Amino acid sequence: MAAQPSASAASSSAPAASPAAGSAAPTADRPLEGRTIVIDPGHNGGNHKNPKAINRQVNVLTQWKACDTTGTSTNDGYSEAAFTWDVSQRLTKILKTRGATVKLTRADNTGVGPCITERAAIGNKAKADAAISVHADGSAAGNRGFHVIIPKKINGPVDPVVNDSRRLGVAVRDAFRKGTGLPYSTYIGSKALSFRNDLGGLNLSTVPKIFIESGNMRNAGEAAKFKDAAFRQRIAQSLADGLQNYLK
């Protein structure tokens, strides 16, 4: 789940514009100063308690889909919702240290939802410079590796940011591979990039946005890594580096 809109070129004879009142310019220590990033931790820990709410159908423009799902888990029950929440909390801390304003689409891992449509709306309302939805996959045990999901044009609100979203996706992919050592997905996409038009969180986004499927929770090797706090920190660090590389 992109480039920033370019400012109007100033006349060569005009004085340099001053920063807006109360704003700060990026520095070496705070390279993301002035940037807004929205993090969407996939699913929610309480989703299984309210199937009526999460199964409600919502319009994602290319089709109708469930408001949300429970997500997957490792074979011994470590849930995707818990994984995405932990990684997102770690990622938030790193990005704030680097100067970014960070907004999350949910406040805890005990609630229900929000719907995929609402998750997109949160990024739009924040006018995010970049948005990322954090996930992990649940596939056959022999499948492994991570992939990044990037939106496609649908003659809808996402169209103007599709190219920027691709740049964001490539930046995150490269940093994730370097930082975690996890391989490209062996079963989805090409070179860890998958382009889709069926996800409401992407279709309805008016800001550059991607999904990261961090790996396969049903693969024993990757599941063990995901359950390790130190490795989740590496994931968060890698995602932060990818976002920063995109936002340079």
Automatic annotation (TrEMBL):
SUPFAM superfamilies: Zn-dependent exopeptidases (SSF53187). Residues 1-28 have a biased composition (Low complexity). Residues 120-244 form the MurNAc-LAA domain. Coiled coil: none annotated. CDD domains: MurNAc-LAA. Keywords: Hydrolase. Residues 1-53 are annotated as: Disordered. This is MurNAc-LAA domain-containing protein.
